[in-house]
C-alpha cells in the first residue's frame, strides 16, 4: 500500500497534537474566563453549514484552526461552574486523558480476548458491588441510561415472554404492562415503544406530594390491569427524576414487585449514585433488590459523554435476551477469538468502543468516596438554595429538593401563562447574558426555572450569583 | 465547593498528559514492532480481576502505569497491518486527536443550540450527498451499524404501522414481515427481535452462487407471505456481507421494493463506502434509491470506535419515529434550549457524545477521494490474493472476492470436520505466533480462514507473509 493514513511528517503531527492538548487543558483550566453558553454567531453557523463535501484533503493545521474558531468557542459549556441545565456532567481532565488513550488503542470491545474486555468486566463488577448485587449479576456499559433502560426493559420482556418473544415477537395477547410514575424519564416509555410493547403499555402512575410514585395507586393499577386480562410484568422505579430529582420509595416498589412476581427495574440515571454518599444512601434504599439498574457515568461520575451502564441481577438471563452466535462471530477456546461470553451477548451493539477506560481511570484516580463527598455537598447546597428561595418571596419553590435539583420561579402577580412566559424569559436572559445556564421544566403545570447542582466546579458563590440575578432580571423584564 | 475534580497540580497533570500522548503516538508509529495480538498473561488477567473496588483515590501516575503495563500491551490490535480479523477499522492519528478534543469539550449532542450539533448536522448532510439522497433526507450518527440498522427497522415499522405502533405496540394481526438474505448480518434479525417483530418475521432469503440475495426467491417469498395474510414491509439489502463481502443487487431490490410498496433499507456496514471509489461504485448502484442506509465510520473511514450512521430519505418520517417532547426537554426559540429539532428526535439515545468531531476531522483532513483510492487498492489486493489462492492448491477459495474479504482454507485430504478443525487451528496458530490475525467464518458449511483487507497500513508484503504461513503451518500440524 503506497502510504496509508499515518502522517508523512510525524514530528509536525506531534507538535500539533501537543499544542491541541495544551489548548484543550487551557480551556478547562480557564473555564471561568468564558460564559457557560454563547450563541453561535450567524456567520459561524453559515460557515459550518456551507462547508462543501470534502473530496480533497486539507492541511490538518487548517482543520484544527477551523475547530478552534468555529466549534470550540460555541459549546453548551457543561464544564462551566455556572452550568445548571438538564442533568449534565462536567467532565474531568482525567476523563480527557483516558479518552485520548482509548482512541489510541481503538479497541472494539464487542468481544474477543483482550485487556479492554477485562477492564469493562472489572468496572461492571465494581458497580455490582456498589449496589450490593450478587456474584451472579452482570451488566454492560452503554452510551447512557436511555440505552440502559432499553436493555433493562428487553431483559424484563424476555423474562416475562420466554425465549420465543425474541423469535416470534411480542404477542399482543400476552398483554404485557409496565408501571412507572408520571415523573419517570421519557426514555422508559421510549423503551416500551422501541421494544414493540407500545408506550401506552407503560402505565403512568400518579405521584404523591414529593413527586414520588404513589404506591397505593400502583397497587390499584396493577389489580385493575390484571382484572382486565393484562399481564403486568415490570415496575420501573425512578431514583432521581429528570424534572425534580424525586426518588421513588424503592423498598415499597421492591416489595410490590416481589409480592406480584414482577421484574423490578430502577432508572437511576443520576440518583443511583446517591448510593456513594453515606448521608444519602437511605434515599435509594431498596436499589439492592432491583432485578436491573440503569445509570449514567457521564453525569455524577463526570466521565466524558457518552457512558452509562445497566446491571442485571441474573447474568444468565441477561445473556439469554441478546446472545446470538453468527458464524463470523464464532468463539474459540484459544487465540484472539476466545473470551466467551462477549459483550455483544449483553446488548444490541456489535461493535463497541472502549467506554470502560475512562470509567476505570475515573474510579481509580479519584476513588468512589470522593464522589460520595461531592454528591453529598452538592445536595446540601441544593437544599440550602431551596431554603433561601422559600425565604425570598416572590421566589417560590415548586418542588421539594430531594437530591440536587432545585425547581423554582419568580411568582409575579400575573396570570399563569404570563408568569410562565416571564420565567422562560428569565432563563433565556440568564443564558444569553452569560450569567448562568439553568434549564426549564414544568411542575404541576407551572413552568419552573430548574437548577441541577452537579458540577464539581460549582461554588456557593456561583449559586448565589445565579439566584441573585433572578429577581433583578424579573424586575427589569416587568418594567 | 472545596476542591472539585480538577488537578491541584496542573503542571504535573500536563506533564503526564503530554507523556501519555507521546506514548500513544509511539504505539501507532511503532505498530510493526509488536504482534497484532498477544494473549493476556495469566498474572495480568488475575491482577485486573483482583483489583478491589476503588474507594480511596490513587495517584494518577500509578493508574497510568497500570494502564501502560496491564492494558495497552494486550490489545486486539486492529491498528496492526497484519490484523485481518472480522471487519475492524485501523484508526488514524487524526482520529486520536479529534477524540481528545471531543473529550475536552465533553459536549452532549442530544440537542440544544451549540456548534457540536451543527457539526453533526453537516456530517450527516455530507453523507446524504455522497449517497445521492435528496435535501429532505436526514440522519443521525450512532455507535455503529447495529444501532443504525435498528433505527432503520424502527422507521420502517413506523412507516408501515402508523403513529399508533409507537403507543399501542406492534399488533400481531398486522403480520409485518421483512426480507434479507441468509448472508445478512445478525444485527438485522436482532433489530427485528428488539423491535418486537420477532426475528422470525425477517425472512432469510436464499443466495445465489455469488452469495447475493436471490431476487426470484425474494419475489416468491413475498408472494407467499401475502397469500398467507402477512404484510411484507421492508427489504434489507446487504452491501458487503460480514462473512464474504457479498453485495446484493441493490437495483433489483430497489425495483422490488418500489413495485410492492415496501421500505428499502441497505445495511452497508462497510460495503456502502465502495461508493467512494469510482471503480467500485457500480457494485453498490441502487443504494441511492434506498429509504434508509446504515453504515459504519469506524470501519473503512477508520474513525475511532464506535461511530456509524443511519440516513433516512424522508427526514420528517424519521423524526415521527422517535420525537417525543418531555417537559424537561422543552425547546426554546432563543438561548441554550433553541436548535429544534434535536438529535434526540432521531434515535433512542437522549444523551449523546460528540462522535461527529472525529468524523468531521477525518473527512476534512484526508478528503473522501483518498478513502476511495485506499478502498479500491485494498479490493484489488484482495482480488489478487484470491487469484493466488486459486493458483496454489491445496489452498481453496471458498467465496468469490467481491470487495475486500477473502475466504479460503487449506483443503487437506481429510473429512469435513477434520478439515474444519485443521483450519481453525491454523488461525489460532497464526494469532498465537503473532504472525497475523485472521478470523473464521463458514461458507457453505465449511470453516473458512477469513481475511478482511481493510487496514490502511497493510502492504502486499503483509498479505504475502500471511498467506505463505498457511501451508507451512498446515504441514506442521498434519505431521
Provide a brief overview of the structure:
Chain A has 479 residues and is of the alpha/beta class. The first copy, chain A, has helices spanning 10-29, 42-50, 60-71, 93-105, 115-130, 145-161, 164-168, 186-194, 215-227, 250-260, 315-320, 356-366, 368-390, 416-432, 460-478, and strands at residues 138-142, 176-181, 202-205, 231-238, 263-267, 292-296, 308-312, 395-397, 405-410, 439-443, 446-452.
Estimate the strand proportion of chain A: 5-15%
Question: What structural category arises from helix and sheet content of chain A?
Answer: alpha/beta
Number of helices of chain A: 15
CATH architecture of the largest domain in chain A: 3-Layer(aba) Sandwich
Major β-sheet of chain A, in short?
A: 7 strands, mixed
- Give the strand order, joined by hyphens, for the main sheet of chain A: 1-7-6-5-4-2-3
Extended strand count of chain A: 11
- What is the H-and-E element order of chain A? HHHHHEHHEHEHEHEEEHHHEEHEEH
Rg of Cα set of chain A: 24 Å
Contiguous runs where pLDDT drops below 50 for at least 5 residues of chain A: none
Oligomer: homodimer
CATH homologous superfamily (4th level) name of the largest domain in chain A: Type I PLP-dependent aspartate aminotransferase-like (Major domain)
Structurally, how many domains make up the residues of chain A?
Answer: 3
Q: In one word, what is the shape of chain A? A: globular
Q: End-to-end distance of chain A, in Å?
A: 71 Å
CATH topology of the largest domain in chain A: Aspartate Aminotransferase, domain 2
